[in-house]
Amino acid sequence: MTETRTDGGRPAGHHDRVRQPPPLPVVPIVLFGVTVAALVGRYAFELLVGTNEAVQTWSTVFVAIVLQAVPFLVLGVLLSAAISAFVPEGALARVLPRRPAAAVPVAGVAGGVLPGCECASVPVAGRMVAGGVPAPAALAFLLSAPAINPVVLVATAVAFPQNPEMVAARAVGSLAVALVMGWLWSVLGRPGWLRPPRPAHAQGGTRGERFRTTLQHDFLHAGGFLAVGALAAATLNVVVDPAWTAGIGGVPVVSVLVLALLAVVLCVCSEADAFVVAGLSGFSLTAKLAFLVVGPAVDLKLVAMQAGTFGRRFAQRFAPATFVVAVAVSAVVGGILL
Amino acid sequence: MNRLVAPILLFVLGAVAVQLVVFGNYVDYVRPGHGPLLAIAGALLMAAGLWGVVAGLRAASGASAEEPASAARLARARAHTRGPLAADRATLERLRAEEQAEGHDHSRLPGVGWLLVLPVFLVLLVPPPALGAFAAGRAGAEVPRPAAVATDRLAGPDPVPVELHDYAERAAWDEGRTLAGHSVVLTGFVTPREGGGWYLSRMVISCCAADARSYLVEVAGAAAAEVPTRNSWQQVTGTYTPGDGPHAARITAQQVRSVTAPQDPYELP
Hints:
- Chain B: Keywords: Membrane, Transmembrane, Transmembrane helix.
- Chain B: The chain crosses the membrane at residues 36-57, 114-136.
- Chain B: InterPro entries: DUF1980, DUF1980_C.
- The complex is a heterodimer of chains A (338) and B (269).
- Helices cover 71% and strands 0% of the residues of chain A.
- Chain A has helices spanning 14-19, 26-48, 53-86, 91-95, 100-110, 118-130, 135-148, 150-159, 165-188, 207-239, 252-266, 273-278, 285-294, 300-310, 312-337.
- In chain A, helix 8 packs across helix 9 and helix 10 runs antiparallel to helix 14.
- Chain A is flat.
- Chain A starts with 13 loop residues before the first helix and ends with a helix.
- Chain B is of the alpha/beta class and 269 residues long.
- Chain B has two domains: 2-125, no CATH class; 133-267, CATH 2.40.50.140.
- In chain B, strands 2-3-4-6-5 form a five-stranded mixed barrel.
- At the A-B interface, helix 1, helix 2, helix 3, helix 10 and helix 12 of A face helix 1, helix 2, helix 3, helix 4 and helix 5 of B.
């Protein structure tokens, strides 16, 4: 609560204390922390991680997911910081058509130019909303960018040398999911569900300063939630029996659902998911398409990052809806194209 | 998260990424092709971190009154002591919005970022090893179905070095047609087999260790009677023998030799 009432009874010196908050001795604290970590940390961690192979596997997978995502996260955060620092407020929104019905497909197709995976698109979409882009258009961008960019489509073509139609099916399917979700949000979405990131413009300061603070903020934010997702994915990777998909491949509807769920759990980067699913034996092409369409739209790390960027109330509604739409779209597109 | 701690964390994370690439350990986690990307991203993070530390130190050493957050605090103090009219309304509104924005204020950095300390500590203090027998043994001995089995003849004079997953695929999904009549050399780590015996095994990654698939080749023959140490790296020279069970791979060893772990523990598809 901000206290704005007059309050004459304050002790003298209060004013000065507020003006000059005692600076935290950050550097000594950090040095102390590093020293303690170096002295004790190794033994503490060895006790925890030790030679237990399950724990070691868990930490390998966790570190791998973070390292694999970091370059794409940096790319996305550089873009989001550039948007907040150099693109005038409202400029992105003015480029898009006024009506959401038309803005959604434009933003969805524009997603095809961001050569990254889903980690890059979350901070960018967050800055788009903060910069005044209507939420449905930003969400269409969020869903289409990791799925239909050239890098991902080429990777898909390489992974499916026998089935070039997979590339078309993936592009069509993912774009359809992005558009459907954008339109759905513009019809059904309530303003209170989505908590937009605060625009950096309100911060004042020079452009360089805005760039730096946004970069720092968005990286720690998206990176932190990436770590949350990586923790969950690594845990499932070690806990869930990898044989659970065996024997389901032949059952038509169930196999689609199973690969869609696998995509949510595995959190494979969209630039690699085609290689992963191509190696799964016994599944129909439609089921594999569901894996490719669901993965870049809904997976554990992505849901965690969305919840962090747009609020938990948003992710609670958006992620399940996207999952349902993505599975349905995959079934339809797979039925027609594959 | 504090204004100075945040850039330090960025710097350290970037430094860890660069260090992993420089010393080559990154291949335990991601595919080799990822190295340059990781190095560039790490260098950028280090630069951003340094920039943040410098800016933070400059702000701390006197210029802080011009910082927006301090301006807001100052305005609040003025309103506090002299009444609401002493500070301009917009500043106060912004201050209130900042306080209600649950950490969405850029000067108060997101606490969830602290989780990034975890990979840094893991890599620096107890570097997780490349995936081994635990991961390899989980999926069972059935060789994953390849998109297309290689049918080209093995290159070179016998004994031919063959990638373990290539051997497993040719053996399990092509009945060893292109392997028969050759003496091959396989390199992998030891995964003990339930009920006796052992597998020579290797993980294949497309992107990172999270998408690893395991390939196991049962090692048979008198030369392999003694089970080597779990997770130790071995080189097996032998000939193709049909595996037991559908899509299982096996080799009859003429020679088993202990070797050092290869620089790149994973094979690429």
